[in-house]
Specification:
The protein is an alpha/beta fold and 193 residues long. The chain has six helices and eight strands, in the order ββαβαββαβαβαβα.
């Protein structure tokens, strides 16, 4: 769908520069998605993988974040192999609802209730990021946290349109459950695309 160089705005790597590759196509369909135009893959003409790798290799950061849509709708083995040949670190942002492919330095798993992750991804996740849009999401977060490794970083992130309502609840929850951290979409606060 698109490629751009920016600052990672969420989770453990927030604040770090990276080349983003947003892949079109998503069957999860979160109502709060801020890139709904990514859902329909037919709206985005295919781009040659080697061209994307070439573009990423020109980026000074040498880090690529693959996001979507839902990137695991596609087999990403070749893409990751070619990025690795260029010395580029690979980061994945996924709901985990499709089989894992690719060779990843970091996997951010962001599970969605309407299309839960496959069991295979939990042990591979470096980061669990759960979006909090109502109080029931805390139980969803704990359910998923029980399935990841003890080394996995845990983040709660307020759904952007409900951040003012959810932040006080999230602060209380994290204070009472100190394994968790709060992730903010800092790129939105800083107005970074």
């Amino acid at each position: 769908m698109e490629e751009f160089y920016t600052i990672q705005g969420e989770g453990f790597h927030a604040g770090k520069p990276a080349y983003f590759v947003r892949i079109g196509g998503c069957d999860v369909g979160c109502y709060w998605c801020d890139v709904k135009e990514s859902w329909d893959a037919t709206l985005h003409p295919p781009t040659n993988t080697d061209k994307i790798v070439e573009n990423a290799a020109q980026c000074i950061a040498k880090a690529v974040v693959v996001t979507g849509g839902e990137p695991l709708l596609y087999n990403l083995d070749y893409f990751c192999t070619e990025l690795k040949k260029k010395g580029i670190s690979t980061f994945l942002e996924t709901s985990g609802s499709h089989p894992l492919s690719g060779n990843w330095d970091w996997i951010c798993l962001s599970p969605k209730k309407q299309n839960p992750p496959l069991s295979e991804i939990f042990s591979r996740a470096h980061e669990l990021k759960v979006i909090i849009s109502d109080e029931s999401d805390f139980d969803w977060a704990e359910k998923n946290a029980a399935l990841v490794s003890v080394a996995c970083r845990l983040y709660l992130q307020p759904e952007w349109s409900r951040r003012n309502q959810m932040m006080p609840l999230m602060v209380d929850f994290v204070k009472n459950h100190p394994r968790w951290n709060i992730s903010l979409q800092i790129h939105k606060y800083m107005r970074i695309p």
